[in-house]
From TrEMBL:
Biased composition (Basic residues): 69-81
SUPFAM superfamilies per the UniProt record, alphabetical: tRNA-intron endonuclease catalytic domain-like (SSF53032)
GO molecular function list: tRNA-intron lyase activity
GO cellular component: tRNA-intron endonuclease complex
Record-given protein name: tRNA-splicing endonuclease subunit Sen15 domain-containing protein
GO biological process: tRNA-type intron splice site recognition and cleavage
Pfam families: Sen15 (PF09631)
Comp. bias (Low complexity): 52-68
Region of interest (Disordered), ranges: 52-83
All residue ranges annotated as the tRNA-splicing endonuclease subunit Sen15 domain in the record: 29-209
Keyword tRNA processing appears in the UniProt entry: yes
Keywords per UniProt: tRNA processing
Amino acid sequence: MSTLTPSAISTLLTTTTTKSPRESLAIEILHNLQHQHRWTDLKLFTVSSPSPSSFQSADSTPTTSPTRSRSHSHSRTRSKSPAHTTIFLISGLPPRHSYIHPDLQKWLIKHDADEASIPVQREWVIPLSLGERWSLKQFCWVFDGLAERDVVRASTTEGHNDAEGEGESFEWKDSKRVILGMLAHNGFGGDGTVTYYVMQEGEVKPRQNG
């Protein structure tokens, strides 16, 4: 009788010395981002304190000892803080823009500018399981610790002429945002699907169709 071959994620979880269910969840989400959505430069962060300065952008080195980052090697995490205070965050570069503000999108369409000309910025993902509840205070901890997003500069296509002149440029800065990566586990009312939702700081302008 033949035996079933474990999936890549099952093999990863069984060969990784994780103790915390939250860490296992974070690894599953990271694996999904890498292999299903083609994200690159993925890093896993732990936040063991509500202090806003306890973590920074993955482009810089965390400044406090309770927070440690590690690349996609899945080395063992040993947090000195209680498990319930540990928050896992994933940082990486998506292959395309995860979100474009309606005002910026309107400018790009109006001036026939390609969104691919705007550099993709690093995104932050919070791994969550279906039915998990977070308080507003927890989300505030995360947003307070995030660095401000970079200013993006868009320009019209070379040689493009319109009533407003040739070679017009446009600058835009998004508010802070995170992506909620929600996993519906098998056997717990879900099918193992990972769904992603964008959460932004402050008021968000609604999109207009047409």
